[in-house]
């Protein structure tokens, strides 16, 4: 599943113009998407360019004031994906702010026993220096910090898969953003 934390504070230069391929790939790979917003009544609505990327049928965004996405409303939606209360999920996480909402969501998901993949080229922070620090911390805490290219090909698994061509096209379109994310992560 893909958890998506868009925000009105997102840097338009970093994400609205060059969004992660994951919302597109989620539709191709039939991955459910869940979205939260951060205190929309005070901070404003989500960046419309990002909202437009989300496939039809995605549950409505959950507005929250907690920094973590793991609020009761989302927890009940996640439970609907499992056959038992003890079943653990694999979660792909993208959004902002890496050092606040993404970090607290990741830590809560890890504490609940879920496998968390933080997508380095799918997260950002208003203060760019916070991002690599947060990504390193999350890796030390047990999250898998990876790129959209890496996780998408891992999910497809084989070039013979009928979804390979579509996913490969998405990866090519976002190659530069993936490169920048890797360079940012490797600076520390």
UniProtKB/TrEMBL annotation:
It comes from the Eukaryota. Transmembrane segments: none annotated. Residues 25-149 form the Isochorismatase-like domain. InterPro entries: Isochorismatase-like_dom, Isochorismatase-like_sf, Isochorismatase_domain. Belongs to the isochorismatase family. This is Isochorismatase-like domain-containing protein. The lineage of its organism: Eukaryota, Fungi, Dikarya, Ascomycota, Pezizomycotina.
């Amino acid at each position: 599943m893909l958890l998506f934390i868009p925000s009105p504070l997102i840097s338009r230069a970093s994400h609205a113009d060059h969004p992660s391929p994951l919302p597109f790939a989620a539709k191709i790979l039939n991955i459910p998407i869940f979205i939260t917003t951060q205190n929309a009544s005070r901070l404003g609505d989500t960046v419309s360019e990002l909202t437009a990327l989300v496939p039809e049928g995605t549950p409505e965004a959950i507005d929250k004031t907690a920094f973590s996405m793991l609020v009761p409303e989302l927890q009940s939606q996640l439970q609907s994906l499992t056959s038992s209360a003890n079943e653990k999920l694999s979660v792909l996480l993208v959004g902002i702010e890496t050092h606040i909402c993404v970090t607290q969501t990741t830590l809560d998901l890890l504490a609940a026993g879920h496998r968390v993949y933080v997508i380095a080229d799918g997260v950002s922070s208003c203060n760019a220096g916070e991002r690599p620090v947060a990504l390193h911390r999350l890796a030390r805490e047990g999250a898998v910090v990876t790129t959209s290219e890496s996780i998408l090909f891992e999910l497809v698994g084989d070039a013979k898969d009928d979804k390979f061509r579509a996913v490969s096209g998405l990866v090519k379109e976002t190659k530069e953003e993936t490169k920048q994310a890797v360079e940012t992560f490797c600076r520390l």
